Amino acid sequence: MSDGPEARREEWLASLVDPAREEALAAGDDLPDRVAAFAEPVQGEPAFDPAFIESIGARLDLPEEGEFERPLLARAVRVGLAHIDATFQGNHPKYGVGTYAQDCHDSFPPTIIAAVDALTLWGMTGRAEELFGYWLAHFVREDGSINYYGPSVSEYGMLLTTGRRLMDRGGSAGWLAAHGDGLRRLERRLRDWMREGGAIGLLRGVPEADEAERPARYFHSSAWVVRGLSDWASVLEGHLDDGNAARQAREDAQALRGVLIEALEACWPHDPQDWWLRPTVEEEGYLAPPQGYITQSRLGSYTNYRYWPELLSSGVLPREWMERIVASRQTAGGQFCGVTRFERQLDDWPLMEHLEGLWALGRYDDYRLSLWGHIRYHQAEGHLTAYEQVSFPPGRKAADYCLPCQLVAVRAEGKRRNGER
């Protein structure tokens, strides 16, 4: 490797394979230490007073430190959970601080999706009920649309899955009676949306808030509608005793999945060495493929950091296609030490979607690599603040702190302990 931080950074940026992966995976039980030794950690200012965060975290009823793989992981979980109440204003959501404290970001769905998942994975279901109930009451309109400037289609499905996660992890019948109508409105909107062309078809819409002006038929969008409707059917059947509505939601989900699989078969290359698995049915203009490596273009970067991961986390793809997505990320310049690359930065706030896919595939070593890579190279040394974007090592803040990124380690370790889908 070349000498000097700038030369090393350029070498890592030019690498199509993760430069740390092979050594880290070979380290076995010592993987966290090998990850930590690979490069300099992130440096930066905390989003909140570290003593305040530590005081909140210390009061949480969590397993003893010795039950974690490393003490640092125990701290990452406590610090992450503490950031929920530090970031929210009572029950009112905030995405982060600085730029991300602006009111226009308050209703961003991934904030509540991540918070409810994190809280319920660690047994804090009552607090999750308070936050999710507030969110549904304030940000789901009567027609089932989300009151946000650029909600993605996939987020509608994720919110339905959030409802199932809450109920399956101890949510109360009283909470569902009070707030289930907000979820029903989301469901009705999705089922109307998929029929805009008459017969059930792939949903056309926004793929991600930053790309709100580029609507198309994105595969991850419809995949998460399939997942969301399927999970909502389980709530209808298991918690609301409405077998007829559950059957209708499940049938629509199965029909949409069939359309999705057929479209993917027609659009993705048959050559297994071709790593460009495009995210849409459409193929013109802005949607031209990146050249050389995945993060070479804006489309490639968004595909790598959000569209592919959400296809994985939906759980609706055949295993061999999930493996192709993971292989494309790992061989086309899509990650560094398990952390997600975006253009010339690292951007991990949607990393949990990739981890969901790795878990489903049984790729537990890659799961650990991303978890420890995230803690080391996306959270600041010492106080562990997670910025939305950081530079390649030596890491520095490239965008403000945001809560979904702070909760990656919390959710990843919670999922590992629970072993659930």
The CATH class designation of the domain at 109-267 is Mainly Alpha
Average pLDDT score: 95
β-sheet strand percentage: under 5%
Number of strands: 4
| Helix fraction by DSSP (H/I, runs of at least 4) | 40-55%
| Count of discrete alpha- or pi-helical segments spanning 4 or more residues | 17
Identify the overall geometry: globular
Poorly predicted spans: none
**What topology, given as strand order, has the largest sheet?**
1-2-3-4
- What class would the helix/strand composition place it in? mainly alpha
CATH topology term of the domain at 109-267: Glycosyltransferase
**CATH architecture type of the domain at 109-267:** Alpha/alpha barrel
Report what the structure shows:
By secondary structure, this protein is mainly α. It has a domain at 109-267: Alpha/alpha barrel (Glycosyltransferase). It is built from 17 helices and 4 strands. The chain has helices at 5-14, 21-26, 31-38, 50-58, 71-87, 109-121, 125-139, 153-168, 173-193, 219-238, 243-267, 298-314, 319-331, 351-361, 364-377, 403-406, 408-418; strands spanning 335-336, 339-342, 345-347, 389-391. A hairpin with a 2-residue loop joins β1 (335-336) and β2 (339-342). α5 (71-87) crosses α17 (408-418) and α13 (319-331) packs across α14 (351-361). It is globular, with a radius of gyration of 20 Å. The two termini are 40 Å apart. The model has no long low-confidence stretch (mean pLDDT 95).
